[in-house]
Write a structure and sequence with these properties.
By secondary structure, this protein is an alpha/beta fold. It is 39% helix and 13% strand. The chain contains 13 helices and 13 strands. It has an 8-stranded mixed sheet with strand order 1-9-8-5-4-2-3-12, with helices on both faces. The chain has a 3-stranded antiparallel sheet with strand order 7-6-10, with no helix packed on it. A two-stranded antiparallel ribbon has the order 11-13. The longest helix has 24 residues. The two termini are 20 Å apart. The chain binds pyridoxal-5'-phosphate. Pyridoxal-5'-phosphate binds next to α3 and α4.
């Protein structure tokens, strides 16, 4: 059996969790959370990082901070995870879906400006597979129309665009530490505040609408309810686990890149033979090997490949059902123009197993199975 994903542990996770307990602090915002926040700030250059329960929670905080309300429009791809859209639908806003590029499968920056209306408030680029969107073009459209840019960098930890870490470019960004991502804490995430004008309110919203963080820094003499908010902060058990992962992030990324390159080199032949298309990484992007996918010729071929792999004990998966064609997408969102590329690739994309601990031998087994197709 080769599973699609297997959560990796560095070995120090349980030790750090026991340390958190020994320090007598298991609620949120203890010393491990501080270490993790600082680590994210140092690695990305973001002005402020705040751990959250999930990337979903980070996106919900970003939606609150952006101030979008009923009827406001938010431009994003349809080819993404539901949380990208849901965070804004919860505020009454309308996701406006724009097609993706056929090379990186990222939001097509050339189609963004024509989707802008006088209700548009934000653009949400999603860095698919940890490969950067064309942020210069997206930021330029945002500047021309005074829109806020919120990066869905769920998959983008340790990737960069023109030398800038993903998650550090838009006004706000959210990253994920879900067990299927590169660096994990089971469930987990962070909000990155790059535009400092959102920093103070971000802390308040995350702390149930109170100024508790300012109180603990001695900036106010009592803490009280000052704004809307919720509980978006994880406990120290999660942060302690995550800290063990951060310590090993370079080794994790190296190992993933090595597996990714093994797949990529091997599939060069199949690509030449027209059997599939491999991922495209633009020269100005460095990626984190978040996933290895191939695009097969059509839905029938993909179904056959999944069955073939399954029969040999290899688990492979596909995603996403485009949001514009999902029941909630039809109810709460609208498409701008044709989503031809989105519809096409969602039928043909196949993700192959990749996790730290997987051996080269197992990658070879998968290749051997696929070579007979
Ligand atoms: C994983 C993912 C999310 C959600 O992350 P969670 O931490 O599970 O909430 C959001 N957007 C994208 C693009 C993702 O891949």
């Amino acid at each position: 059996m080769i599973p699609f994903n297997k959560p990796f542990m560095t070995g120090k996770e349980l030790w750090y969790i026991s340390q958190a307990h020994a320090k007598g602090h298991l609620a949120g915002d203890g010393s491990f959370t501080r270490l993790c926040n600082q680590w994210i700030e140092q690695r990305t250059g973001s002005a402020k990082a705040l751990l959250t329960h999930s990337c979903t929670a980070g996106l919900e905080m970003a939606a609150l901070l952006s101030g979008v309300g009923p009827g406001d429009e938010v431009i994003m791809p349809s080819y993404t995870f539901v949380s990208t859209a849901n965070a804004f639908v919860l505020r009454g806003a309308v996701p406006v879906f724009v097609d993706v590029r056929d090379d990186t499968l990222n939001l097509d920056e050339r189609l963004v400006e024509e989707a802008v209306t006088d209700r548009t408030r934000a653009i949400v680029p999603v860095h698919y597979a940890g490969v950067g969107c064309e942020m210069d073009a997206i930021q330029a459209v945002a500047a021309r129309h005074r829109l806020i840019v919120i990066e869905d960098a769920a998959q983008g930890v340790m990737s960069s665009y023109k030398g800038r870490p993903l998650g550090s470019i838009g006004d706000l960004a959210a990253i994920s530490f879900h067990e299927t991502k590169n660096v994990i804490s089971g469930e987990g995430g962070a909000l990155l505040v790059n535009n400092p004008s959102y920093a103070e309110r971000a802390e308040i919203i995350r702390e149930k609408g109170t100024n508790r963080s300012q109180f603990f820094r001695g900036q106010v003499d009592k803490y009280t309810w000052v704004d809307v908010g919720s509980s978006f902060l994880p406990g120290e058990i999660i942060a302690a686990f995550l800290w063990a992962q951060f310590e090993e992030v370079d080794a994790i990324t190296r190992r993933r890149l090595s597996m990714w390159n093994t797949y990529h080199q091997w599939f060069a032949e199949s690509e030449k033979a027209g059997k599939l298309r491999r991922p495209v990484i633009p020269a100005h992007c460095t990626h984190n090997a978040h996933m290895y996918y191939v695009l097969l010729p059509d839905l029938e071929r993909r179904t056959a490949v999944i069955e073939r792999l399954k029969a040999s004990g290899v688990q492979s998966v596909f995603h996403y059902i485009p949001l514009h064609s999902a029941p909630a997408g039809r109810r709460y969102a609208r498409a701008h123009g044709s989503l031809r590329v989105t519809d096409d690739i969602s039928d043909r994309l196949l993700r192959l197993p990749m996790w730290v601990g997987m051996e080269d031998r197992q990658v070879e087994i998968i290749q051997t199975i696929l070579s007979v197709l």
